[in-house]
Amino acid sequence: MATGLAYHPRFLEHVAGSHHPERPARLLAILDGLEEAGLRGRLVPIDAQPVDPRWAQMVHSPQYLARLEEACRRGLPYIDTPECGIVPASYDIALLAAGACTAAVDAVMRGDLQRAFCAVRPPGHHAMYDVSTGFCLLNNIAIAGHYARRAYGLERVLIFDWDVHHGNGTQQAFEPDGEVLLCSIHQDPRTLYPGTGYATEVAVEPGRGGILNLPMPAGSGDDDYRRVLEREFLPVAEAYEPQLVLVSAGFDAHRDDPLAMMDLTDDGFAWMGRMACDLADRFAGGRLIAVLEGGYNLPVLRRCVPQMVATLCDVEPTPR
User: What is the rounded CA–CA span in Å between residue 251 and residue 138?
Assistant: First the structure.
């Protein structure tokens, strides 16, 4: 079955600051990489529309959404913290990014597509219920997870977050009720923002949802990730038998990324992508949606995202 691409040119209009690492060039590098790998033409475009506010309110308070809209309308330089820079269009673009992810859920759950990659920004997994943090305004993947459960009646949604930073906003969104199984593998919170994501924070019961945090020491590489994921993550995910796999796909654990201290290579990300697809194939009828989070080295994005998309398409990238 086909693989979709959720993208909209308006994502380039969000500017967090003149020297901010979360910049429009990230998406341009990804799009160039997809063209160079001969993949762009294989992907079915997914029509992105602003998310319905009722779905955003499953994750964020109405007061926060109103405050974000007002801050953008007034032309403030940031909301809540200087790292969360905004421009007047940022509120609309954040709604569009979240809507691209729910549109991907629609396409996959209807059977129009088997898999999808959401090339969206601003990213989302740090966005909390009532505050923006870590470059994130709305929590795209948490909104998609709630949407998949309620709009399609899914009982078991797996969110696999391999961004180097702990997805504190996503954990907050699902921590109270264990509605999904969230696994976050990230750099040890004692050495990296946001300082959350300890293994002791929440437990997972076999076969049920919950939070599985896998903090990794700074300097961990491909073999370390593979060993921990095979030992700690895969048995839990297999017992859960997910009906849909969502991936918070950050590429900032790469050894060349400027914002962290990990040692993953292109091969490490390729292996994680294959592992996620294998889980989806075995338990979810192949249904998988990957959502872009971090990753701030442009050549890494240009290589690693097309490599992952090729895995979603079950093809080998063919450079032109």
Answer: 19
Interatomic CA distance for residues 277 and 70, integer angstroms: 40
Q: How far, in Å, CA of 246 to CA of 233, rounded?
A: 15
Look at the alpha carbons of 310, 20, 86, 164 in this order and tell me if their dihedral is positive or negative: positive
Q: Which of 269, 273, 312 is nearest to 46 (CA)?
A: 312
Q: And the tokens for 236? A: 């839990």
Residues 6+ apart with CB under 8 A from 231: none
- 16 Rama class: left (phi>0) / alpha (psi -120 to 50) / beta: alpha
Closest CA to 253 of 122, 140, 134, 165: 165
Q: Note whether 156 and 246 are within 8 A (CB).
A: no
pLDDT reading at 277 higher than 80: yes
Q: How far apart are CA 265 and CA 200, in angstroms?
A: 28
The pTM (predicted TM-score) of the whole model is 0.96
> pLDDT of 232-268, one tens digit each?
999 999 999 999 999 999 999 999 999 999 999 999 9
> Which residues are designated catalytic?
126
CB 176 within 8 A of CB 230: no
Q: How far is CA 242 from CA 66, 153, 179, 250, 279, in A?
A: 34, 13, 12, 21, 8
CA within 13 Å, CB half, 181: 25
